[in-house]
Design goal:
The complex is a heterodimer.
Chain A lengths: L4 H12 L4 H6 L1 E5 L3 H12 L4 E5 L23 H12 L4 E5 L8 H4 L5 E4 L4 H14 L5 E4 L12 E6 L2 E5 L13 H19 L6
Parallel strand pairs in A: 1-2, 1-4, 2-3, 4-5, 5-7
Antiparallel strand pairs in A: 6-7
Helix pairs in contact in A: 3-4, 3-7
Chain B lengths: L1 E3 L2 E3 L6 H7 L7 E5 L2 E2 L15 E6 L5
The chains are: A alpha/beta, B mainly beta.
């Protein structure tokens, strides 16, 4: 039986506190890229009761995604944004999700992300990560950006950390492992990085901005 | 001197494009801030580092 909205919110308050939960509930967070990082970030934020999630990815679920991404085998072939919206609705039906199946580029960043409080970069290609982070920071001089760099391979999870690069840019990862080196991607380690990003988002919303 | 990622470097007078390349970064994978202001991707060749600047360069690794 799905709890009603008041019961659901009260349970979140019991875990996160009456000061912080309203900040999470009021927040609008964009997740750009819904792969190993983005799908796990979005689920973590939905479970934390973040009120509004803006999910963006051009791609569909593939069998090779299932080792690390928050989709079910039965969802192979679906657009990721739609599949993740469905999965989040099953976890937190009171999370308002806007799911968009499109490519984010320098030409549409400004229009696409204008209403979001915080932007998570969760792409896989390094060039696309740099393009998005640079483009968002250029378009929105005040918006916090939480990005990721280095989570490939099976190195120690302890190497993954959160670094506050500057006033409004946080980067999570080990900063050295590159998927192009052929070391693969392991769900557990990608999840560590995604958890760093989701934690950084919650800390920013809570007013705890230091890494 | 210019502070790059926390270290003093003899980079004053170089453009962002020149410095990024000379330091061995792949320019397509970097994000550059000077004094907490982002340098637009299209302006690396025309932005010159000045004495006393504080520069952050993030070079992204792939995977996600």
């Amino acid at each position: 039986m799905t709890p009603d909205r008041e019961t659901f919110f009260a349970a979140l308050v019991s875990r996160h506190g009456a000061d912080r939960q309203p900040k999470f509930s009021a927040a609008r967070v964009a997740v750009c890229g819904l792969g190993g990082l983005g799908s796990n970030i979005a689920i973590a934020l939905a479970r934390a009761g973040v009120g509004h999630l803006h999910l963006i990815d051009f791609d569909r679920v593939e069998p090779s995604n299932l080792n690390r991404q928050q989709y079910f085998a039965s969802q192979v072939g679906m657009p990721k944004a739609e599949a993740l919206r469905d999965n989040i609705a099953a976890i937190n039906p009171y999370c308002a999700v806007v799911a968009e199946t499109l490519r984010i580029g320098p030409d549409n960043v400004r229009e696409l992300l204008a209403d979001d409080d915080i932007v998570c970069e969760a792409f896989d290609r390094a060039e696309a990560k740099a393009m998005l982070v640079s483009g968002v920071m250029e378009a929105f001089p005040e918006k916090p950006v939480v990005a990721a760099s280095g989570m490939a391979g099976l190195g120690s999870a302890n190497a993954i950390r959160t670094k506050r690069v500057s006033k409004r840019l946080w980067v999570c990862g080990d900063f050295v492992a590159d998927v192009d080196d052929g070391q693969g991607l392991y769900g557990a380690r990608v999840l560590v990085c995604a958890a760093h990003q989701a934690t950084a988002v919650l800390r920013i919303l809570a007013g705890e901005e230091e890494a | 001197m210019v502070k790059v990622n926390g270290e003093e470097k003899d980079a004053a007078g170089k453009t962002v494009a020149e410095y990024v390349e000379s330091a061995g970064f792949n320019v397509a994978r970097v994000v550059v801030e000077i004094n907490e202001t982002i340098v637009p991707k299209g302006k690396y060749a025309e932005t010159t580092l000045r004495d006393g600047d504080s520069v952050e360069i993030v070079c992204f690794m792939g995977g996600g």
